[in-house]
């Protein structure tokens, strides 16, 4: 059995996260309230978000394991690391955008 390259798999998972985020953007952008079923739309969005979160957690775990095992930090590590940071920023900004503040 060959050696498992953790950074390569973290990189692959983050590329899939990026693809899912692009799909989510286009689904939300093209959604028409009057001609689409909103319950089915929400269900599809929730499934894609759950898959994206699962991939994010596994990518972070693989990044940590690869770092602990002292693998060589190549472009796959840096791209996966930056995309994970971007995903966290996306989650935080998404939460800030949906939170309402009352200013007195």
Describe the structure.
By secondary structure, the protein is mainly α. It has one domain. It has three helices and no strands. The protein has helices spanning 6-29, 38-68, 75-98. The chain is elongated and about 55 Å long. The relative contact order is 0.18. The model has no long low-confidence stretch (mean pLDDT 89).
Helix and strand topology:
Layout: H1 6-29, H2 38-68, H3 75-98
Summary tags:
mainly alpha, 76% helix, elongated, 104 residues
Number of helices: 3
Classify the helix fraction into a percent range. Answer: over 70%
What structural class should be given to the helix and strand makeup?
Answer: mainly alpha
Strand content: under 5%
Largest sheet data: none
Mean pLDDT: 89
* Broad shape: elongated
Query: pLDDT below 50 for ≥5 consecutive residues: which ranges?
Result: none
The value of Rg in angstroms is 17 Å
> What is the end-to-end distance?
64 Å
Number of domains: 1
Order of helices and strands: HHH
Number of strands: 0
Summarize the structure.
The protein is an all-alpha fold.
């Amino acid at each position: 059995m060959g050696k498992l390259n953790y950074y390569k798999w973290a990189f692959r998972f983050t590329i899939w996260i990026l693809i899912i985020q692009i799909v989510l953007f286009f689904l939300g952008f093209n959604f028409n309230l009057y001609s689409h079923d909103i319950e089915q739309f929400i269900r599809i969005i929730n499934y894609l978000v759950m898959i994206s979160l699962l991939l994010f957690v596994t990518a972070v775990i693989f990044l940590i394991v690869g770092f602990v095992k002292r693998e060589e930090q190549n472009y796959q590590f840096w791209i996966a690391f930056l995309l994970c940071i971007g995903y966290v920023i996306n989650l935080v900004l998404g939460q800030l955008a949906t939170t309402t503040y009352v200013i007195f």
